[in-house]
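Case 209 in the screening queue. Each case pairs one protein sequence with one candidate compound; here the compound is PRP. For every case the pipeline is the same: read the inputs, emit a complex structure as tokens, and attach any notable structural observations.

Predict complex for case 209.
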Amino acid sequence: MNQPFIMDHPLIQHKLSLLRDKNTGAKEFRELVSEIAMLMCYEATRSLPLTEVEIETPVSVAKAKVVSGKKLAFVPILRAGIGMVDGVLRLVPAAKVGHIGLYRDPTSKMPIEYYCKLPTDVAMRDVIVLDPMLATGGSAVDAINKIKEQGVANIKFMCIIAAPEGMEALQKAHPDVEIYAAALDERLNEHAYIVPGLGDAGDRIFGTK
Ligand code: PRP
Ligand code: URA
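Case 209 output:
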């Protein structure tokens, strides 16, 4: 089982504190989600393979490194995962983007799927799944099941805040998946919201409450 990466970089932690603040409005919240996603992506792509090429500088020929042919796809879980997409695309603009739509049933807290559109060549790609919140873990587990059904071998999951319950569920269901989070919070409350968390990420990104 992979140990989760909890990102303690000062810039990520500072931005996360602003994100948690209930007085942070939708515009700033969206910007912060995007910036944190970009910073996390920097770390989550650390293991991308490099290949050596020769480049002519104005002075001579240099042996230089470029990211090798292995391609990436980002898959945000709708809705809130959409808030992370432009941040990660700023670092990897050539990546393709798939979408999986899931919402939690308010009573059972179980994820209900309503949309799935993945790149046709997704099986040839490494995939990073994006969702700001890992609460019970149900949405992440289902989304990754769906992606594995398409034959994807290498999947990472990137969230901003994780609850211990969701972390455990995801590690148990998908021990091969590397998990990146900016914080591992205390617990879930009786509504399966993360404590202290940041509230409802989708509502705060899209201003729907
Ligand atoms: C939130 C969040 C995750 C899910 C996490 O989405 O963005 O997808 O809850 O909870 P879980 O780990 O218990 O499954 P939500 O269902 O509220 O939908 P939304 O993004 O459309 O608001
Ligand atoms: N989804 C959210 O948006 N926030 C939580 O705390 C839990 C699930």
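Case 209 observations:
- Helices lie at 10-20, 26-44, 85-91, 138-149, 164-173, 201-206.
- The pocket of uracil (ligand 2) is lined by residues 80, 133, 135, 193-194, 197, 200-202 (CB under 6 Å).
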